[in-house]
Amino acid sequence: MTSRRRGKQAGRILELAKTANDAGFLIEAHHLAWSALTFAGDLDAARRHAEAGIALYDREQHHGLTYIYSGHDPGVCCRSFGALATWQLGFPDRGLAQSLDGLALARELTHPFSVTIALWGIGILYLLRRDSRATHETGQMLLDYSVEKGIPPFVPMGKIYRGGALAEEGMFTEGLRELREGIAGVRKLGTEYTVPTYLAWLAELCAKSGLVAEGLQALEEGLTMAQKNQDFFSLPEFHRIRGELLLMESANSIAKVEACLEEGIDMARRLGAKSLELRAVTRLAQLWGECGKRTEARHLLAPVYGWFTEGVGTLDLKNAKALLHELA
């Protein structure tokens, strides 16, 4: 079932839950929605459902839902997914705080599967924030914890985070090997949930290591998977990264690169994904600056950068600010 179909199903269940006068049932209806809609790219709706879950959840009353429905605590899950949607919508500090709250709750509950869910979610968040050290540490924690507690499905996720972080830190051979191994391990579980996001990261790391053909192959595989499963969470990144790879392939492909970046910007705007919009806009502005279009570049980047009210310490905001100074 695609993410979109799961979202529609969740909407029907939510309507039923509203008539049942049962807070636990209502939480679980929102649970279905936030977990389906986040990766379907319906980010604002996903955040609203997650916030409803946070507002309704009472630890003493509702941790028991863990053993009736999904096998993990809904109070942890709504924070983990809500954090991802919140980051995408352009609030990186709030997203991180929410994710850390979810991990703290999972540890207080001493519920192993909920802890792995929280580590999985914060691993994606650190990946998105481009914080390689934190991604590496989270990957190692997820690996160690999954082995210790006997939860093998999360071992490949730990390898993905640790391997990708190693590649980000310049250990390309070792890192890319482990990242690919982790992705293959997830797919062996019979799921492709969130895999397009990992394939986009693989493609970007291939670009950084000069492996253009491998990067384009990972992009095509991820894009096909995303379209099949209607997983649009990282779709803007596919277009931006394709532009990077095409530019590496040929310095004469400026028009194609611009088209890719503009498609990434358009897709980010359609999703309301301000963080990914900033990333693609920054790259296009950089390209325009290199081509002598400094005024156009500054006018493109300045309003998008100026929209943000938090996250000044994140790499994306730092890069955008530095580029604006260069273009002044």
What does this structure look like?
The chain is built from 17 helices and no strands. With 328 residues, it is mainly alpha-helical. The longest helix is centred in the first third of the chain and has 18 residues, at 23-40.
- Report the strand count: 0
Counted by DSSP, the helix tally is: 17
| Helix/sheet category | mainly alpha
| DSSP helix fraction | over 70%
Measured between the Cα atoms of the first and last residue, the distance is 49 Å
How large a portion of the residues is in β-strands, by DSSP E? under 5%
Q: What is the residue-mean pLDDT, rounded to a whole number? A: 95
Element string (H = helix, E = strand) = HHHHHHHHHHHHHHHHH
Low-confidence stretches: none
Largest sheet: none
- Output the radius of gyration: 20 Å
Secondary structure: elements and pairs:
Layout: H1 3-18, H2 23-40, H3 43-56, H4 59-62, H5 74-88, H6 92-109, H7 112-129, H8 132-149, H9 155-168, H10 172-188, H11 195-208, H12 212-229, H13 235-249, H14 254-271, H15 274-290, H16 294-307, H17 315-327
Helix pairs in contact: 1-2, 2-3, 2-5, 3-5, 5-6, 5-7, 6-7, 7-8, 7-9, 8-9, 9-10, 9-11, 10-11, 11-12, 11-13, 12-13, 13-14, 14-15, 15-16, 15-17, 16-17
